[in-house]
Write a structure and sequence with these properties.
Elements: E1 2-8, E2 12-21, E3 24-34, E4 40-48, E5 56-62, E6 69-74, E7 77-80, E8 94-95, E9 99-103, E10 107-113, E11 118-121, E12 144-151, E13 164-176, H1 181-192, E14 211-214, E15 218-225, E16 232-238, E17 244-250, E18 258-260, E19 266-269, E20 274-276, E21 281-283
Antiparallel strand pairs: 1-2, 2-3, 3-4, 4-13, 5-12, 6-7, 6-9, 8-11, 9-10, 10-13, 11-12, 14-17, 15-16, 16-21, 17-20, 18-19
């Protein structure tokens, strides 16, 4: 193993750790902190060798959050592991949209994955090819998780091997107090959808965003032209664990704002303030 300082700071500090790893020509891990940020970045690059025998590639995160409740971000919802699952549902591995939060009543950690959407809990459980008895039926997940980055367990419609240099990025944010749905969503989206830097003219005024929201926890998931090109379609999503009220603030004058359906048909005028229920999606 070889550890070097890649960025000495004071704004960005990065440690580079190069080592051997099973099935790889080498593994390079970077641990990065940025002044003013409240999280740690992990960047793992594998130089993967071709392997056609059954294998799985994991990065382990043995986090220490006693009595942690595990919540997984999925499209348009958050799943509390085991509690929110039906009988017979898969508990051996999970799909993650952006983040997992592991929290008890006093503190916790939000873990964000940018490139690898599959997750397992310790101990690793693979049913194939060992039989149905290896599927979990119920369990209490701990705070030791694995990012399942690659495997060749399913031959149908999948390449039989992965090889070459592949990078997997993660961000870990510890937090005081218990789980906060709005903060977890904000952190996950900030990491996975970073701001884009564009050239600015100091002689010109700052360009205002087209639309701002007043309402903690409600986010804009898309703004796009309507199919007929005559309007803008806006989709709002309440990421909070309870009802939230939102108000729209347009930077330019607009016509009437309508509550719409997914077919882009206006149904009712948008009120001055709109209350969204937990995880409610509204189309304007």
């Amino acid at each position: 193993m070889k550890v070097t300082v890649e960025d000495p700071g004071p704004i960005v500090a990065t440690l580079r750790i190069e080592s051997d790893a099973p099935g790889c020509a080498k593994l390079v891990r970077r641990v990065r902190v940025v002044d003013g940020f409240d999280h740690v970045e992990l960047i793992n690059t594998t130089d993967k060798l071709r392997e056609q025998k059954p294998e799985g590639v994991y990065f382990g995160f043995p986090l220490n959050v006693p009595d942690a409740v595990s919540r997984i971000d999925v499209p348009w919802a958050v799943v509390e592991v085991d509690k929110d699952q039906m009988r017979g549902a898969n508990r051996n591995f999970y799909c993650v949209q952006r983040w997992v939060d592991l929290s008890n009543e006093d503190y916790g950690l939000t873990w964000v994955t940018m490139d690898a959407p599959m997750l397992q809990y310790d101990p690793i459980k693979i049913a194939l090819p060992f039989g149905a008895e290896h599927w979990r039926t119920r369990f209490t997940p701990g705070s030791h998780i694995y990012s399942w980055t690659m495997n060749n367990h399913w031959e149908c419609n999948y390449k039989a091997y992965q090889e070459g240099q592949i990078t997997f990025r993660y961000a870990l944010r510890p937090h005081a107090q218990g789980y906060n749905a709005v903060q977890a969503q904000r952190f996950g989206r900030n990491v996975c959808q970073p701001l884009l830097a564009v050239q600015a003219d100091p002689a010109k005024p700052v360009i205002e965003p087209l639309l701002k929201l007043r309402g903690e926890g409600v986010v804009i998931t898309s703004i796009r032209p309507s199919r007929d090109g005559k309007a803008l379609m806006v989709r709002l999503f309440n990421t909070a664990d309870d009802d939230r009220q939102v108000k729209l603030h347009w930077s330019k004058p607009v016509g009437t704002t309508w509550l719409s359906n997914p077919m882009e048909q206006p149904k009712a005028k948008m009120p001055a303030a709109k209350t969204l229920a937990k995880f409610e999606v509204v189309t304007l």
